[in-house]
Amino acid sequence: MKTLPEIYPGLLLLMHDIPEEMDQEFNRWYPDEHFAERLALPGFRSVRRYRAVGGQPAYMVIYRCQSIIDLISPSYRQVLENPTPRSRAILSSFQNVVRAACREVWRSGIAIGGSMIVVQCKAIEGKEDVARSFIRGRFAEHLKESGCMVSMSLCESDAEITSSSNSELVRRALPDHYVDWVLLIESYDPVRLSLALHSEVLQCDSQRDGLLIGSLTRYELMCLHTAS
Q1: How far apart are CA 132 and CA 113, in angstroms?
Q2: Does residue 113 belong to any structural domain of this protein?
Q3: What is the pLDDT of residues 137-152, one digit of tens each?
């Protein structure tokens, strides 16, 4: 576990499906209970919810913290290991879960877009710096030139903190999936951004650029809640 002070913002990314018969209760649970519980924790700054457009998993939530260490704090562990009956029922019903505790190591732009494309990717071992330079340089600059990108961030996950920040009591039918790196690309024009993004992905050379690009999923912002 890292003991040095954390200089990067922390993000907890959770993508998942939910059984159709639980959808209404699930969408009530967030504003009724879950938002207030999480945003009362030390270091938690905001929670954003998204719904997928033409893809899966169907839902995504992003918790933004002052530091990734906030995701393993005693306060956070306390709520994880003492879920309300309602929370336990909802969380255990999640399906096709992708979950990662990340450091936001780079960001371009501060605006929040109504649409986001989530790019799951991974640096080739030994070429992490090459991949970071590629993302911050040509990849981001070409997307900016499309005129529809409002912000972009590179989030690098931490496997140990991801595991430690999960509840030992809430059991799902299948293990969660894990993602190494995530690009969060926000836009006000998702169609133009999708076209520009697919063009850049096609031109990416993994050996040259040090990056393996996986799935791309488009999400629409449902709501944003911030800590008081």
Answers
A1: 23
A2: yes
A3: 999 999 999 889 999 9
Over 140-208, what HEC string results? HHHHHHCCCEEEEEEEEECHHHHHHCCCCCCCCCCCCECCCEEEEEEECCHHHHHHHHHHHHHHCCHHH
d(CA 165, CA 178): 13
Q: What pLDDT shows up at residue 55?
A: 87
Tally the domains of the chain: 1
Whether 55 maps to a domain, the answer reads: yes
Residue identified by tokens 């990849």 is: 139
Q: How far is CA 52 from CA 118, 132, 157, 217, in A?
A: 10, 27, 22, 7
Q: What is the CATH number of the domain that holds 50?
A: 3.30.70.100
Percentage of the chain beyond pLDDT 90 is 90
